[in-house]
Amino acid sequence: MLLPPSEGKTPPRARGPQLDLSSLSSPDLFPVREKVLDALIEVSASTDALQVLGVGASLDAEIARNVQLRSAPTREAKHVYSGVLYAAAGLDRLTPTGRARAAESVRIVSGLWGLVAPDDLIPAYRLSMGTHLPGIGSLPGAWRGALGVELDARADGELVVDCRSATYLAAWHPPRSSDWVQVRVLRELDGKRSVVSHNAKHTRGVLTRHLLTRRGRAPQDAEGLARVAAELVGSALLAVELGPPTRGARTLELVVA
Question: Where are the alpha helices (DSSP H) in the chain?
Fold first, then answer.
């Protein structure tokens, strides 16, 4: 299961351990992580940091915090990411069985780290995958090759539940040998359906939690995923629909009120 990071993050307490890139999961991503981290620290200390990173003056303190990332305190990613999706997914309040499932199957695609597992120790930071970093260029382009090496073999023949937005999707596409399902959320009002954004994050988080906490065997393919998602109809969802394959992926539509 692939998740996007949240823009909102909860800074770890000052007594947390400092960042250790070599301790993160997916260690083969270390060289790219080093380059992106160095470039982010450098640009965050520059006079045009806000413009390059595409943020407003209200986030000046967060950009200033980027400069200290190597010495900043860290905490598990499941505690640092604190947006709408993560509030609904509740990765930080799982049973031991749920935590084991998340450690094995959930990965967060990040513009800074490439991939993050829920228990990886990271500091709070500010960097969108849509950023062009000096010396690095487009972040999806910088990560694409390394993520392919890391994920292609893992996804081969497997179900990939993809909750990423388009910006993060650009960093890696699952191989055609996988059963790739993109999760889309629609709102139904007066019989008409439309795409939503805020509700989409929440609903993807609800699906994530359901997959991690429900009893029974995990879904093995797109049809199985649709059946599991349909268990939420009548509570969190109005309907679930699975579309035909398009460009290597199928679309799981979750309809909310």
Answer: 30-44, 49-53, 60-66, 77-80, 84-89, 96-105, 139-155, 166-169, 198-213, 222-229
